[in-house]
Write a structure and sequence with these properties.
By secondary structure, this protein is of the alpha/beta class. It folds into 2 domains: 112 residues, Golgi alpha-mannosidase II (Immunoglobulin-like, Sandwich); 333 residues, TIM Barrel (Alpha-Beta Barrel). It has 9 helices and 24 strands. β7, α3 and β8 form a beta-alpha-beta unit. α1 packs across α3. Pfam families: Glyco_hydro_30, Glyco_hydro_30C. This is Glycoside hydrolase family 30 beta sandwich domain-containing protein. Belongs to the glycosyl hydrolase 30 family. Keywords: Glycosidase, Hydrolase, Signal.
Length: 460
């Protein structure tokens, strides 16, 4: 992630009807982020980078983070006025908000909770096949009220459910870390997940998606689970999919939810003619592999969606290097490879990178660091997501963007309000002079060797 090539991102919104425009500049190297600047002039012409709204690709659901129990605990500890102000900044739709639209939620504990737990924990050696001890109590003090507060601010927020581990009594090692789900509990675990989704829905918190397992090929975290492709296929095909159908759940099942180095994992699942009926798409991280894997899976199964669901920034990471790498790969890279979401990892942590479980991540840097006195530090991941979420709302459609100069990558979208947003990234160490054109109008721009521009332009 520590790449020191100067990278530049340009986010442009071209209005079909409004008579004004806006421009913001971010320079990651000096940490001068999202500062409003003067507008470039519009002229007649059709040179430079070309935007074509008639050629359309995937609809984008949005951008965001994983809201962990630890994040919720820290935010809820803020003074009421500061808490409200922060949540409005993160999830509101005003000019001063960054418009987060998707949150990933752990089913039970993730490794960034203070302790490991599931929603059906019982004494060692016992089992609860009828799920009589199922309870959301472990999340009633922090995660659930936090989600409810966010839902009030943004009623259209999308939630993605992801378990880090089933209850330990369902696993072959009887532990929260590692092990595999015992086949005799596949059906019970499917009912556990149905019960979770139904219980959360009763609290006013319906889920748009569920992935059966976070990082199924990484059983070394705490909590975690090893779930091979054949096991996940069996689980979805014969248990989870039918259970969702019987319960009348419309939550989308997304396969995999792990690194881009194993596209064969979701492809194996989607190749099964029965399983694929229950699966809406697949989810990816980028700790290994290349972001183009999303496009590989999409090409193999063009009727199934792809999602980018997690990438961390580390405590030892360098601000500009992390920001630039993530803009290239997580934001632009995932979108041009058909992703409907692009999510960073943890929303918030304390200065010691906690809370975390024993054996959980000790260097995961949240988008926001919340200090003991309530002071807030907005880190790399805050601006990585803001660069997209502030300008690309839910329901935007990716459109064609061509004739990019050498050393530049980009993506364009048609927003629901009929404005157009464009992200461009300059990967060279020199400024690039170019124009961007739409329907006979063009804007001359000089993009500096370092920084991010977010521009709202009137095409008239």
């Amino acid at each position: 992630m520590k790449r020191f090539t100067w990278l530049v991102t340009l986010a442009i919104v071209l209005s079909y009807s409004s008579g004004f425009g806006q421009i913001w500049m971010s320079r990651a190297a000096s940490q001068q982020m999202l500062q409003e600047q003067a507008l470039p002039a519009v002229s007649s012409g059709n040179s430079g980078i070309q935007i074509n709204p008639k050629i359309q690709f995937q609809t984008i659901d949005g951008f965001g983070y994983t809201l962990t129990g630890g994040s919720s605990q820290l935010i809820l500890a803020l003074a009421p006025d500061q808490q409200k102000s922060l949540l409005t900044e993160l999830f509101g739709t005003s000019k001063n908000s960054i418009g987060i639209s998707v949150l990933r939620i752990a089913v039970g504990a993730s490794d960034l909770d203070a302790n490991t737990f599931s929603y059906d924990d019982i004494p060692a050696g016992q089992k609860d096949e009828k799920l009589e001890h199922f309870s959301l109590k472990a999340s009633e003090k922090d995660l659930i009220p936090m989600m409810q507060e966010i839902k009030k601010i943004n009623p259209s927020i999308k939630f993605m459910a992801t378990p880090w581990s089933p209850p330990a009594w369902m696993k072959d090692n009887q532990a929260t870390k590692g092990g595999s789900l015992l086949p005799q509990y596949y059906g019970v675990y499917a009912q556990y997940l149905v019960k979770y989704l139904k219980s959360m829905e009763k609290l006013g918190l319906p889920f748009d998606y569920l992935t059966p397992q976070n990082e199924p090929l990484h059983p070394g975290n705490n909590p975690s689970l090893l779930m091979l492709a054949s096991q996940q296929n069996d689980f979805i095909k014969n248990h989870l999919g039918p259970a969702f159908k019987k319960a009348g759940l419309t939550t989308k099942i997304l396969a995999y939810d792990h690194n881009c180095d194993k596209p064969e994992y979701p492809i194996e699942i989607l190749n099964d003619p029965i399983t694929r009926k229950y699966v809406a798409g697949s989810a990816f991280h980028l700790y290994n592999g290349d972001i183009s894997a999303l496009g590989v899976v999409r090409k193999a199964h063009p009727d199934k969606e792809v999602y980018f669901t997690e990438q961390w920034t580390g405590a030892k990471g360098e601000f500009a290097g992390d920001f630039n790498w993530h803009i290239k790969n997580v934001i632009i890279g995932s979108l041009v490879n058909d992703a409907k979401t692009a999510l960073e990892w943890n929303l918030a942590n304390d200065p010691q990178w906690g809370p975390h479980t024993p054996g959980g991540c000790t260097e995961c840097k949240g988008a926001i660091t919340i200090q003991a006195a309530g002071a807030l530090i907005r880190n790399q991941a805050y601006y990585i997501v803001a660069q997209a979420s502030k300008f690309i709302p839910t329901g935007s459609i990716r459109i064609a963007l061509t004739n990019l100069p050498k050393g530049m990558i980009g993506v364009a979208v048609l927003r629901p309000d009929k404005q157009i947003a464009v992200l461009l990234q300059n990967e060279t160490q020199e400024p690039i002079k170019t124009a961007i054109s739409l329907l006979g109008k063009q804007w001359e721009l000089e993009i500096p060797k370092e920084g991010v521009l977010s521009i709202l332009l009137n095409k008239e």
